[in-house]
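Appendix B, record 7
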Amino acid sequence: MNLRKFFNNSILLPAALILGVAAGYLDLPALNTGADVISEIFINLLKLVSLPIIFLSIVSTASGMESMRELKNMGQRVLKYTLLTTVIAATIALLLYMVIDPARTPLEAGVGVADQLEVNYFKYLIQVVPSNIVEPFSQNNVIGVLFIAMLLSLAILALPDENRTVLHTFFKSLYAAIMKVTSWIVRMMPLAIWAFITLFVRDLNGGMDMSNLALYLCVVVLANLVQAFVVLPLFLQSKGISPYKALRGMFPALSVAFFSKSSSAALPMAMKCAEERVGVSRKVAGFTLPLCTTINMNACAAFILTTVLFVSMSYGMTFSTVEMVVWIFVATAAAVGNAGVPMGCYFIASAFLAAMNVPLTLLAVILPFYTLIDMLETAINVWSDSCVTMMVQKDLDQEQEAVISEEVSVTA
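Structure tokens (predicted):
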């Protein structure tokens, strides 16, 4: 399937958007039920291939590398850009929070105290190392799948060339088969967009009152928009990459991320867009994007920092400037470790607040709006993943050009 031709279709997608808005406003039970079924099926199909794609893309890519040195080189670049962009995202959120000051007057929460949510990080750490190879796939444990993929990749790289070649061909063929299935799933996009838009408009018409949380939501949304349209484009420009072309190329993947609210579900589309529309090599896309989907959470860091400060300060807690700065790094570390936790940002923020003995009432107020926040955050995270991938590709290209230039000069 020609992905570019499919998404440049001037009829199907606009028609799906218009019909979705109309169906959402009509709010008919039959249409709502149909939209629920279609959206669930589409997300389930994406999730069906997401974990195999993470596993096979990393193993097939790493097993095709010439040495562990090449794997280490790419991994270090991914980690560098991930930490840098995530710290900046949290810093922007803190600066906006201090300027807008959403907790300057107490909010009246119209709900009861929410139950204390418990996240057992020791248990989560244990789950990183699964007890068997099937468990991470059956439990949708992304970190566990990543661990197995990296462990197997390192083992394959340590094998003799003849064995490594056979295994590389095997995993590469499996990966190609999964991507073929993904291309079939992508054909459902217009129908899925109609379903997502229908449900989205229906929920907006449900009468949600955002007045009490307007300033808080303003901080969260602005922090994400600044990260997406200022910080990340500046990173791309510094590498000689056109932000407009990059955004246009990744737009289908960002659309899937926005409406599905799942970075993992958007991964198949992100990989196809990176390779076919942006020009990232399959080797870089196959290693970097699955890894970024797991650890690169710019928007999550901004949400955790803003939410913890907002809720705790609304109940009278105070933080010095130094303590607020410390929260930049706490939120960054929490965001990097967020992957694999359902509603990860929300639960991690609640875990911090519970540990600080802060009432969780306001979290119950935030929860109805979290769907909207999560849609934006997921799209920003996938956009950040894409930017990191393109920057890694650019670095590797420049490194290769430098090596070739040096060899030419030596020969001359």
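Remarks on this record: The two ends are 46 Å apart (CA to CA). The longest helix spans residues 361-411.
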